[in-house]
Amino acid sequence: MPELILTKDLDVPDYHRLAGYRSRGGYGALKKALDEMTPATVGAEVKKASLRGRGGAGFPAGTKWGFIPAQTEKPKYLCVNADEGEPGTFKDKVIMERAPHMLIEGIILSCWAVGIHHAYIYIRGEFVKARKILQAAVDECYAEGILGPKVMGKEFCLDVTVHAGAGAYICGEETGLIESLEGKPGKPRIKPPFPALVGLFGCSTVVNNVETLAFVPHIIERGADWFLKIGSERNPGTRLFGVSGCVVKPGVFELPMGTTLREIIYTHAGGLPEGRTLKGVIPGGVSAPILTPDEIDTKADFDSLAAKKSMAGSGGLIVIDDSVCMVRLLARIARFFAHESCGQCTPCREGTDWAFKVVSRIERGEGQPGDVDKLASIATSFAGITICVLADAAAGPILSFVQKYREEFDLHVTEKRCPLENKAPSRPGP
Amino acid sequence: MPKVTIDGREIEVEPGTTIIQAAARLGVKIPHYCWHPRLSVAGNCRMCLVEVEKAPKLMTACSTPIERDGMVVHTRSAKVKEAQGTVLEFLLLNHPLDCPICDKAGECRLQDLYFEHSRRDSRLGPDEKVHKPKNVDIGDHIVLDVERCILCTRCVRFMREFAKDPVLGIIERGDHSEITIFPARRLSSRYSLNTTDICPVGALTSKEFRFAQRVWFLKHTRSVCPHCSAGCPVILDHNRGQIYRMMPGERDGLAVWLCDPGRLGYTCVNDEKRPVAPLLAPPEGRADQVSTTWAEALAAVSAGFQEHLGKAGPNSVAGIFSNWCTNEEVFAFTRLMTRGIGTASVACHKPLRGLVDSGAPDGILIREDKNPNTRGASEIPTLMKKEPKALTDIFDGLMSGKIKALWVVDPDLLGRIPEGKERKRAQDALKKAKLLVVQSPFVNATSRLADVHLVSAPWTEKEGTFTNVEGLVQKINRAHGPRGEALPDLAIFQRLADAMQINVDVAEPAHVFGELATAVASFRGIKYKDLDRGHGKLRAPDPAGGKQPEKDGDTKTP
Ligand SMILES: Cc1cc2nc3c(=O)[nH]c(=O)nc-3n(C[C@H](O)[C@H](O)[C@H](O)COP(=O)(O)O)c2cc1C
Ligand code: SF4
Ligand code: SF4
Ligand code: FES
To answer: What's the gap in Å between the CA of B151 and the closest CA on chain A?
Structure first.
């Protein structure tokens, strides 16, 4: 069994509470850092570990922290991205519900390293249970002096605020998140300036994903060199893979980065049900372009999947078998993006819904000759020219589905029905 | 300073200048919707995409600053043109086909840019457009068509940043996004009509202009808003002797904002009841004035003046001019009175009240003084031989009988004096005059007292200059007319002088301005024909050290 980092102790009773977490050495890394290290050495260790952001883009956390000016007149902030909105993704929830103190310890270490005195955890509104657990953990920390005016008795003050979102995927985009935290509609900002210079309330801000931060205590406790030995080249460490769809044992699996998709699906997620064959895998949440069965020996890490013109994204694998109509699935995905577009940029606002209308028409058996090409051309034109990358995320699935399952799309148009079923195709569900 | 090359031409700019600003300086136009030189950058329409060498993606010219030296920008490459076509296709996707009945047609940026940069065929297919509310009454002057909105947020930013009354916003997401007004609020700002100018499409239209006229029939005449001392440059849009609207003019190459009351202040010149010929009251009473010819009217005035001059001396004929007179009229009138007629009984009526009440000053545009030329009317006579008297001296003179005849050049002398004792006193004094001559474009309480009403052309039907509160000398131009037999004030002065055989040459504003520029220090060096080149290009030296108009952009507002 590969080494577990984040999930090793999840079965310890009361691990989500301070006592349970401490019983396994919890807050030891923080103590070590406060006693033996300086903020700079904590930052340096994380940088050396090449900890890549687990929120989607895989940007190295240490480098991102380095963009924050050392001396600022205004305060600096940390925004913890706990919005987990990408369909097919459900791994941050596991950390927040079962190891909230690991996240808090990571937050404190990161804030100490960067010189931040207030962190906001922006948690997806639908995560009611996770929010309650997380808030209870934060309260415990205040009661025990782990948070507050003197963190663990040291001259370092830190406040952590848990803030619930109101149900918008776009509030997971870092500047949408910041706008939302400020009480405005979650519409992403033009970058530059990046949050590191102008972020929350106009101040220098770090935005990191929950899972990214949960690794920090482990890196501090055991050292960057240990971390670098796990995973694949330039993609160190483990990662929480959320596997859903047509597998026998869906769930969250912690595996070294660079584990192949095949191993994740067949060894860990129990493979496909009897009699089904694999038709495709979405490797990193619905934004990630789909891979076909002959591509599943690809390593599930940032660089290997990028080389396959897909992406590791949020680590959410969606497994699709031969019972699934690709047109119908794409219609469902297209609907998601059209619904979640914040609507400020012309191409994304208009294009995502147009694409949805065209693909649903094809799905209903009402497609017209040329519609499949039109669908692809709409996606090509709205990608790459917007404020945030939601539009690109929406284009990825459309272009990859049409390219890789073209025949199925064409059959819907020529036969005016879904070839997978004996009946005329129906509308995708709500 | 960093250098940037745009379409092969190099220019040096201040660091932080955006590509769109630098391009404008080179005369390169980059199509845009959401960007506006006087508002913050939103970057949402994506119309201004340009290719920047070494950048992985197309960049928005409105939001990309030039920070490093040697940036190379292409605004017409194949990639750029493709993106422009794409953005236009998306903008038109859910846009209603209202053009035939849309007031913006003919000056709509969506129409214009589509014609200039796309002309692609529609690929919409059988899909329904997204429908949104139409014909929503959101303010005293504004109707909103939500469906036509392209969500550029210009109006939202204008209300927040300039009008300081943020009542507009966008709700919902995706292609259901809608421009809307805050619950239970109205677009009641005194600056609301500017939103109809900056709205690139026909989403925000003015109630006053809706369905009044197709824009391509309109003729445009540069002028100055006369309704407060700010003297905002305007464009009179007119056709067949009617003013249809007043649009913002330019100052320092940039379109200005206007206040609603000022902008709508043209309605009185369109008034059908405006007199179109001089009016003469029968000798026995002033009640029933009747239309007459200029010859008769002027003969009556001339005879009357001469009679009193002969009997009671020069000071028995008095004149009142006002802060509604152009600089040339002030100069001509004061000269005619003091040198031609030889009277010392000349006063200037310059109250704060004007013809339109735009309300309390707000530190934005609106000034307390609601008149166009208080500064000019004060500056010019102080340099004459005989300084004007106070208005009360004239009234006292009338009451005591020393003044027999009075010539009032003011659109509404009594109406601009506060109601109550003061106005009553003025009214009593006017009634005492043996001969009251009122020169005004309008019929009102003052003109009704007149023995002779010399019907003059309003500011839209004549030419001249006003000096605004900041000392800026600006030209008003004749849009059309004058209506009927009405005459510009200078022409009336000339004709009366001729009738009285006084040798002056005051009929032509250009000529009078020339004399003015020689005689009066604050006009020295200004050439009349230069004033046509643009609003506010020339300004008089400013003894009061008033604020200069802001200079914050470099291109014309679309
Ligand atoms: C449309 C959109 C949605 C996103 N949603 C999330 C999200 O739910 N959670 C998350 O951690 N990152 C999300 N991201 C990525 C964030 O913008 C950001 O890159 C990330 O939070 C950075 O954290 P990391 O560097 O630790 O990965 C999203 C990005 C986009 C464009
Ligand atoms: S790309 Fe889409 S989601 Fe992102 S800012 Fe633009 S409209 Fe909003
Ligand atoms: S109403 Fe006009 S100005 Fe306002 S957002 Fe819509 S298109 Fe832009
Ligand atoms: S003008 Fe630049 S994005 Fe609208």
So the answer is: 7
Given a cut of 60, whether residue B542 has pLDDT beyond it is no
DSSP A286: T
CB B334 within 8 A of CB B381: yes
CATH 3.10.20.600 fits A232-321, yes or no: yes
ipTM exceeding the 0.90 mark: yes
Is B229 a domain residue? Answer: no
Domain A326-415 listed as CATH 1.20.810.10? no
pLDDT, one tens digit per residue, over A80-130 is 999 999 999 999 999 999 999 999 999 999 999 999 999 999 999 999 999
* Out of A168, A347, A358, closest to residue B86 by CB: A347
Q: Mention every residue, 6+ apart, whose C-beta is less than 8 A from residue A185.
A: A179, A342, B170
Indicate which CATH number applies to the domain containing B416: 3.40.50.740
Residue B179, domain member (yes or no):
no
Residue found by looking up tokens 């670098």 in the block: A228
Atom of ligand 4 at shortest range from CA of B45: 4
Across the interface, whether the CB atoms of A344 and B150 are under 8 A apart is answered no
Banded pLDDT at A422 (limits 50, 70, 90): low
Q: Could you tell me the CATH number of the domain that includes residue B45?
A: 3.10.20.740
Which of A348-352, B431-435, B531-535 shows the lowest mean pLDDT across its residues? B531-535
Give the single-character DSSP code of A265: I
Q: Measured on CA atoms in the order A217, A220, A223, A229, is the torsion positive or negative?
A: positive
Of B511, B529, B545, the residue at which a domain comes to its end is B511
CATH architecture of A18-229: 3-Layer(aba) Sandwich (3.40)
SS3 A23: helix
Q: Are B174 and A358 within 8 A, CB to CB?
A: no
* Res. B555 pLDDT band, cuts 50 70 90: very low
B155 C-alpha to center of ligand 3: Å? 6
The nearest CA of chain B is from the CA of A342 a distance in Å of 5
- Give residue for tokens 């309390």: B360
Q: Is the CA virtual torsion A193, A199, A204, A210 positive or negative? A: negative
* Last residue in a domain, options B89, B118, B134: B89
Please state, in angstroms and rounded to a whole number, the distance separating the CA atoms of residues B396 and B183. Answer: 57
Domains of chain A by residue range = 18-229, 232-321, 326-415
Q: Among A427, A369, A423, A374, which Cα is nearest to A399's? A: A374
Mutate to test the pocket of ligand 2, among A169, A179, A336, A348 (most ligand atoms within 8 A of CB): A348
Output the CA B250–ligand 3 centroid distance in Å.
22
For residues B44 and B36, the answer to whether their CB atoms sit within 8 Å is no
Mean pLDDT, chain A, whole residue set: 96
The Cα–Cα gap between B412 and B322 comes to 10
Asked if B47 and A374 come within 8 Å (Cβ–Cβ), the reply is no
Which residues constitute the domain of residue B85? 3-89
Please give the tally of structural domains in chain B: 2
pLDDT score, position B381: 79
Rounded to a whole number of angstroms, the distance from the CA of A48 to the nearest CA of chain B is: 28
A8 close contact with B: CB closer than 8 A? no
- Looking at the CA of A346, which ligand is closest? 2
Give the whole-angstrom CA distance, residue A251 versus residue A94: 10
Strand B142-144, strand B49-52: pairing: unpaired
Does the residue B453 lie in any domain?
Answer: yes
Size of interface A-B (CB pairs under 8 A): 97
**Mean per-residue pLDDT for B63-81?**
95
DSSP string, A346-399: HHHHHHHHHHHHHHHHHHTT---TTHHHHHHHHHHHHTTSSSSTHHHHHHHHHH
Q: Is residue B438 part of a domain?
A: yes
Nearest to B546 by CA among B554, B536, B555, B556: B536
Is residue B401 within 8 Å of residue B432, measured between CB atoms? yes
Amino acid letter, residue B107? E
**pLDDT band at A429, cuts 50/70/90?**
very low
